[in-house]
Amino acid sequence: MKLLLKRMLLVFAAIIIIITLLLSYAYFIEPRQFVITEETISVKNWTSEESGFKIVAISDIHGGSHYMDDARIKFVVEQANAQEADIVVLLGDYVSQSDGRSGALRMPMSQIADDLQGLRARYGVYAVIGNHDWWYDEKKVRRELERIGYKVLENEATSFDKNGQTITIIGIEDFWKRSKVDIEKVLANINPRRNIIAITHNPDSFDQLPGGISILLAGHTHGGQVVLPFIGAPVIVAKREYLRGHVEKNGKNLFVTTGYATTFPFIRLGVPPEIAVLNLTVKN
Fold it and tell me: Given 3-state DSSP classes, what are the helix, strand and coil percentages for the chain, each rounded to the nearest 5?
């Protein structure tokens, strides 16, 4: 009996040690890591002249959150610039509240914008507003991003020419703010519908995406932020099928980046901070 009790105590102690080590790693180590996720995605409604079009996608910076100081934000700018992308897209949630939805910011938006300044891409930097941003003050977030020269799109479209082809970027309002957006209205003056990249914060907007758009890019989920063996992500903030990475459904394409920072409980496990580098090719 004593031997059995001793073994049980040893097992319990081992479990406590393992949990403590995992939590320590998830709090102190993984949030400081950084990966570049690269993927080539074949999409419809994309011209062959633009095969190899490179996008850097950055989401969920949450300035002032766990380990997300000035140097860390400037680091992601350096890493993004090193990719020499055609465009950079910023997919929302630049700010972090100190106390849930209504708390003061952990870092002023003006400071976050200053740290983000200097992103370079051949055809510009495009941004959308995330739920934390409109919880705070979406107009101010937009003003600060525009101050540093980035194009913010909220149910808006903009186009540029590359190799004689027109490429269009549309921004879709955050799903938690407005779950039904008239995307057809945003696309009304775009004809033919090809070479269209949509950007939004919450990937749940994918379900209402009309035809003709080559790909939708989103963030918001943090990839679950914690992913456990055999269990997956215990907590998700969007449809599970849209948790991370490339999704192809009903002939449409979505890519969800797992983001750069953390929110409560300020840990990452199995989902290190990332930026995504995507190369678009033509789907035959």
Answer: 30, 25, 45
* Cβ(27)–Cβ(266) below 8 Å: yes
Segment 203-242, tens digit of pLDDT: 999 999 998 999 999 999 999 999 988 889 998 999 999 9
Helix axes 109-116, 138-147, angle to 10 degrees: 30
Q: What pLDDT score does 14 carry?
A: 80
This prediction's pTM: 0.95
| 150/142 Cα distance (integer angstroms) | 9
Domain ranges within the chain, ordered by starting residue: 1-32, 34-282
Task: Give CA separation, 236 vs 123, 180, 242, in Å.
Answer: 34, 21, 10
pLDDT (0 to 100) of residue 1: 67
CA-to-CA dists, residue 38 to 56, 112, 246, angstroms: 9, 26, 11
The whole-angstrom separation of Cα 189 and Cα 62 is 35
**Eight-class DSSP state of 115:** H
The model's pLDDT over 43-102, given as tens digits with 9 standing for 90+, comes to: 999 998 888 999 999 999 999 999 999 999 999 999 999 999 999 999 999 999 987 777
Q: What is the CATH topology of the domain spanning 34-282?
A: Purple Acid Phosphatase; chain A, domain 2 (3.60.21)
Strand locations in 145-239, DSSP E? 151-152, 156-162, 165-171, 196-199, 215-218
